[in-house]
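note to self — DONT lose this again. spent like an hour looking for the file last time. sequence + predicted structure for the chain T wanted, 108 res
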Amino acid sequence: MPSFIIPIINILKKLLKPKVAKRIYVYNSFNELNDLFSKSILPKEYGGDEITCDEITENWRKALQSDAWIEYFTEEDKVMSDETLRTRFLNSDDFFGLEGSFRKLEVD
C-alpha cells in the first residue's frame, strides 16, 4: 500500500463511530500479518507456506464448475416466491388517493 494512504485512512477513522473505527486495521508489512496468523495458512504472496493466490482462485473456479455446484445453482435459480399469496396491507393511498398527512399546511 502506498505510504500516503495511511494518513488518509487515519483521518477517515476519526470520522467514523469509535466502535467501527476500532475494527479497521492497517498493516504496513507482511511481517505484521505473520504475528497474527500462522505461516501455514497464509498464501506464498503473503509470506506463508500455503499455495499461491492464483492457485487458490483456480481451485475455487474448478470447484464451482463441478457438477454438484452446477446442479445446486440450477435448482436455486428455480426458487421463487409466489406473490399472489402475499398479504396486501391497505394504506391511506388506497382510500384517499394521496399518501401522507396534512397536519401543517402553509397558505400564502
